[in-house]
Design goal:
The protein is about 55% helix and about 15% strand. It is α/β, with parallel strands linked by helices. It folds into 2 domains: about 5-160, NAD(P)-binding Rossmann-like Domain (Rossmann fold, 3-Layer(aba) Sandwich); about 170-260, ProC C-terminal domain-like (ProC C-terminal domain-like fold), CATH 1.10.3730. It has an 8-stranded mixed β-sheet, with helices on both faces. β7 (about 125-130), α6 (about 140-150) and β8 form a beta-alpha-beta unit. The radius of gyration is 21 Å and the shape is elongated.
Length: about 260
């Protein structure tokens, strides 16, 4: 890609810029369009990338990353459809916005890729799910999967599963953070200081995640291995089950999925 345009240079936009550079894209080939002058100056100083106004950027870009909020997408597409490079691959990161919506709003025939990333992308441990629209070339698909792999793991799914992906990995980090908050609060109620409660909880979660990722064993097996009959862990898990934790999580994920569909 001779030029990669990034529209929207917030937290996720910056993570994707870092991923592009890690993938091997020259910083001088990455051009951002950002309304906040101070933010644009910050990113150019940090990464050595370029800044251009929106029209010039979309006219020259071979790949265009749309990293804007779902509610801002329609206005953006209307603004760029008259200037966009007709051969550019358009990569959208907006929750709920379907490939067909992007294609119809542009009306330019550009190939479109839909991506659902998540916030651990910021530390190179992200999870991204990619769906390819009609006309996306093998080269373009490889480019998208390649630079996203620099942020963590990537899978390809059919687009009808993207709302489920949003409910699983897209919103999933927030479920985790909320559970950590609850564990820290519970530890404090048991008498631990906030500092000790935080250290114990975070390291336990990080260690458990690493064990799950590297042991090759399922979550079920690992849970069973650490649960002695009538022991302390069994008592805690019994409490979880009495509160129907499976239903709580499933209902939360369904709510996220439904909201993703509403954003379409």
């Amino acid at each position: 890609m001779k030029q990669v345009g990034v529209i929207g240079a917030g937290v996720m936009g910056e993570a994707l810029i870092a991923a592009l550079i890690s993938y091997g894209v020259s910083p001088q080939s990455i051009v951002i369009s950002e309304k906040r002058k101070e933010r644009a100056e910050e990113l150019t100083a940090r990464y050595g990338i370029k800044v251009a106004d929106l029209e010039a950027n979309v006219r020259a870009a071979d790949a265009l990353l749309l990293v804007v909020k779902p509610q801002d997408m329609a206005a953006l597409l209307d603004e760029i459809k008259g200037s966009i490079n007709k051969k550019a691959v358009v990569i959208t990161f907006a929750a709920g916005k379907k490939i067909g919506f992007i294609e119809q709003a542009l009306g330019t025939g550009n190939p479109v890729v839909r991506v659902m990333p998540n916030t651990p992308t910021l530390v190179g441990a992200g999870m991204a799910a990619v769906s390819l629209g009609d006309g996306v070339s093998a080269l373009q698909a490889d480019f998208v999967s390649g630079f996203l792999a620099a942020t963590g793991k990537v899978i390809e799914v059919s687009e009808d599963l993207q709302d489920a992906v949003t409910a699983t990995s897209g919103s999933g980090p927030a479920y985790f953070f909320r559970f950590v908050e609850a564990m820290i609060a519970g530890a404090k109620e048991l008498g631990l200081s906030e500092s000790d409660a935080t250290t114990l909880t975070v390291q336990t979660i990080v260690g458990a995640a690493k064990l799950l990722d590297e042991s090759g064993k399922s979550a079920t097996t690992l849970r069973e291995n650490v649960t002695s009959p009538n022991g302390t862990t069994a008592a805690a898990l019994t409490s979880f089950e009495s509160e129907h934790i499976g239903d709580v999580v499933a209902n939360a994920m369904k709510a996220a999925r439904d909201r993703s569909q509403e954003l379409a």
